[in-house]
């Protein structure tokens, strides 16, 4: 399934979203937002939900912010919820993913200025080999099937000499852009959340950092190869529907998420598996 970012009413009807507009402190117009109402933020559980919970428990009250966290395990619902005004903001994605989502769905979700928080290094994991060089000919490698993360995974494999991509392959690269594949690797495209569970069925999998953490995998310790944080465009940030960037509650949260306290929390808790991006 190539376009996991497609908005469908089925996603909501299936129960992925079980709270309505009344669960949020505002609709989609920040000009009408009650600055004293709770700010509801959608996030994937690890590490975004954990970071938000730290802010809620240790920093928000002192800053005069009421914060509610709604956790989701997919990469679609947090954006549909923001677009439809069912939550005030989300925190789960990087810029290439958001750009692709907006383009495909006609949405207008934007990063909050100053809201870039952390990077989760993408890693290659395996239960059958200890080094990428040990992958056998014809081995199967699972990749995330959303456009930008699949390209990111392929670029990681290329950076480690496993494959080569055609010149100019960008954030939408697919296995069709592989020009050199010495081992004849086969690529299996799966929803990102399914990748850790696929490890027993494939020779290796390229797994997003948050899902690796949920599966007790560390990019710093368990990955055969992992992304470098230097000049990395895949840092995660706080995002809102366009026009809501100046909601005073959103501004408070963006400031708290990039505070020294949150930086220390990330460094202490994740030991390199998640790194601050501010």
Automatic annotation (TrEMBL):
<comment type="similarity">
    <text>Belongs to the nlpA lipoprotein family.</text>
</comment>
<keyword id="KW-0732">Signal</keyword>
<keyword id="KW-0564">Palmitate</keyword>
<keyword id="KW-0472">Membrane</keyword>
<keyword id="KW-0449">Lipoprotein</keyword>
<dbReference type="InterPro" id="IPR004872">
    <property type="entry name" value="Lipoprotein_NlpA"/>
</dbReference>
<dbReference type="Pfam" id="PF03180">
    <property type="entry name" value="Lipoprotein_9"/>
</dbReference>
<protein>
    <recommendedName>
        <fullName>Lipoprotein</fullName>
    </recommendedName>
</protein>
<feature type="signal peptide">
    <location>
        <begin position="1"/>
        <end position="23"/>
    </location>
</feature>
């Amino acid at each position: 399934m190539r376009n996991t970012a497609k908005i469908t009413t089925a996603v909501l009807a299936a129960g992925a979203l079980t709270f309505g507009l009344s669960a949020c402190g505002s609709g989609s117009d920040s000009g009408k937002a009650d600055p004293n109402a709770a700010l509801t933020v959608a996030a994937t559980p690890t590490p975004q939900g954990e970071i938000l919970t730290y802010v809620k428990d240790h920093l928000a009250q002192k800053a005069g912010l009421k914060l509610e966290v709604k956790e989701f395990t997919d990469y679609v619902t947090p954006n549909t919820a923001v677009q439809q005004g069912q939550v005030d903001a989300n925190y789960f994605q990087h810029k290439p993913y958001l750009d692709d989502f907006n383009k495909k769905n006609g949405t207008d979700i934007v990063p909050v200025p100053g809201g870039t928080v952390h990077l989760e290094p993408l890693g290659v994991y395996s239960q059958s080999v200890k080094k990428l060089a040990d992958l056998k000919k014809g081995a199967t490698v699972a990749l995330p099937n959303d456009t930008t993360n699949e390209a990111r995974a392929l670029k990681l494999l290329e950076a480690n000499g496993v494959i080569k991509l055609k010149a100019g392959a960008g954030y939408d690269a697919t296995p069709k852009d592989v020009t050199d594949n010495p081992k004849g690797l086969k690529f299996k495209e799966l929803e990102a959340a399914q990748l850790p569970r696929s490890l027993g069925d494939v020779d290796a999998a390229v797994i997003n950092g948050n899902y690796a953490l949920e599966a007790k995998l560390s990019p710093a310790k368990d990955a055969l190869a992992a992304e470098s944080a230097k000049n990395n465009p895949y840092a995660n940030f706080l995002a809102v529907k366009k026009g809501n960037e100046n909601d005073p509650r959103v501004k408070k949260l963006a400031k708290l998420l990039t505070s020294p306290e949150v930086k220390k929390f990330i460094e202490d808790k994740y030991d390199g598996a998640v790194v601050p991006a501010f």
